[in-house]
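Please decode residue identities from the backbone states below.
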């Protein structure tokens, strides 16, 4: 008795007809008949009453049918589980993220994922949220960590909010604090030397708009830098910067102060194609990202929180 014989038996029972069952299984009818005959011989019992109008189950066939269905279902389950296991031993995950996330959250995500699944090939694309969504839509990425401000994206993406974090003002821990209080107003920040990001950063646009709303003109001492460079310049005392709270994790050379109301916040979300099923490896990566985001929120304290479904 083998799975092919059981599958043939179940299909003949379903259709009550050898010819239709053979068509469903893409078998020649004589081959199907031989499989059923071999199964009956191995069991020592006839399974069908064969008649010109069709075939019906014998008592032995009625007994075997639920057992055969269960065995086939178990076999399919084993195949799926082994296929998923194989998918986590080899394969690839293509992840995209913004530069800010690459030096903070993504570094932790990739460390945890690679430690658990070293056989998976990892590809990373680092650019702004709009570019990441373009790559996601063209099939170049499986997942993308993006920054969303209003929760709207194209309908072809499934977007899950992960974290809501504040933007904070950072200065060098080697210098005196920029203020004696727990928070600082944007108007006060504008009077301090500011290290500004490249204009290609969504973060730069958000902070520029905030200064305009506050009626303040910042004193920029350097502009055009990328995230890692901005943080290094601030650590060395060149000026202050407005950055996401997340990048301060494990950076003892920086001191941060929260902004007074209205606070500047951003939502970090995970996007994937809405119409494509995830592979096992991509599914595990998605769960790794969610778990790491939760851990980051716990470490960051009041400046970061888990996003709710409405964020």
């Amino acid at each position: 008795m083998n799975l092919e014989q059981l599958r043939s038996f179940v299909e003949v029972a379903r259709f009550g007809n050898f010819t239709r069952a053979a068509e469903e299984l893409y078998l020649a009818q004589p081959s199907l008949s031989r499989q059923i005959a071999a199964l009956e011989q191995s069991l020592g019992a006839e399974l069908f009453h064969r008649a010109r109008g069709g075939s019906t189950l014998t008592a032995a066939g009625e007994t075997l049918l639920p057992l055969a269905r269960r065995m086939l279902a178990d076999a399919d389950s084993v195949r799926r589980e082994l296929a998923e296991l194989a998918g986590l031993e080899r394969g690839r995950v293509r992840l995209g993220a913004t530069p800010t996330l690459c030096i903070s959250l993504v570094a932790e995500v990739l460390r945890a994922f690679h430690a658990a699944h070293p056989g998976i090939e990892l590809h990373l694309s680092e650019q702004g949220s709009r570019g990441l969504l373009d790559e996601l839509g063209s099939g170049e990425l499986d997942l993308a960590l993006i920054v969303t401000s209003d929760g709207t994206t194209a309908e072809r993406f499934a977007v899950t909010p992960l974290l809501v974090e504040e933007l904070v003002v950072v200065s060098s821990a080697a210098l005196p604090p920029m203020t004696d209080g727990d928070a600082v107003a944007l108007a006060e920040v504008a009077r301090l030397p500011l290290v500004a990001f490249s204009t290609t950063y969504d973060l730069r646009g958000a902070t520029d708009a905030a200064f305009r709303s506050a009626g303040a003109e910042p004193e920029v001492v350097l502009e055009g830098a990328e995230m890692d460079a901005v943080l290094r310049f601030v650590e060395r005392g060149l000026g202050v910067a407005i950055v996401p709270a997340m990048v301060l994790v494990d950076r003892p050379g920086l001191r941060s102060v929260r902004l007074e109301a209205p606070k500047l916040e951003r939502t970090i979300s995970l996007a994937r194609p809405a119409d494509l099923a995830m592979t096992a490896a991509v599914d595990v990566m998605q769960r790794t990202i969610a778990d790491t985001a939760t851990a980051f929120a716990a470490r960051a304290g009041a400046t970061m929180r888990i996003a709710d479904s409405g964020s």
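Observation: The mean pLDDT is 88.
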